[in-house]
Amino acid sequence: MSDKRTLKPFPTHRSDEEAEEFVATADLSEYDFSGFKPMRFEFEKKAAQLNMRIPQGLLDAVKSKAEARGMPFTRYIRMLMEEDVSRP
User: Fold this and answer.
1) Which residue has the higher pLDDT, 38 or 9?
2) What is the pLDDT of residues 16-59, one digit of tens each?
3) Domain-by-domain residue ranges, the chain?
4) Average per-residue pLDDT in the chain?
5) Which strand (E) or helix (H) includes residue 9?
6) Which are the contacts of 13, defined by CB distance < 8 A and separation ≥ 6?
7) Which of 31, 42, 73, 80 could staple 63 via S-S, CB 3.0–4.6 A?
């Protein structure tokens, strides 16, 4: 028989301390995490700047893809570049 229980919505917290207490004490398997998106954290300082001209249609397409991923288009472009240069 499959487990068809209803998952609880993930609560919001007003502070890091509240969130830490929740994570330390809650059974996280009872909560619905489907609304969460992966997040990338960027720690390296950005010291170089890039300025380039591209066709408007390409920029519109990039912005659309970035929006679908929930990120600014400049971060999306940087992510694509990082993924490409990190391939063997």
Assistant:
1) 9
2) 899 899 989 999 888 888 877 776 667 778 889 999 999 999 99
3) 1-36, 43-88
4) 87
5) strand 8-9
6) 19, 22
7) 73
- Give Cα 20 to chain centroid, integer Å: 20
Which pLDDT value is given to residue 84? 93
Q: Tokens standing for 21?
A: 């207490």
Q: CB within 8 A of 30, min separation 6: which ones?
A: 7, 8
| Inter-residue contact 60 to 76 (CB < 8 Å) | no
**3-class secondary-structure state, position 13:** coil
Look at the domain 43-88 and name its fold.
Arc Repressor Mutant (1.10.1220)
CA distances from 47 to 7, 23, 26, 34 (A): 44, 36, 42, 36
Distance (Å, whole) CA 45 – CA 35? 30
- pTM for this prediction: 0.54
CA distance 57 to 28: 43
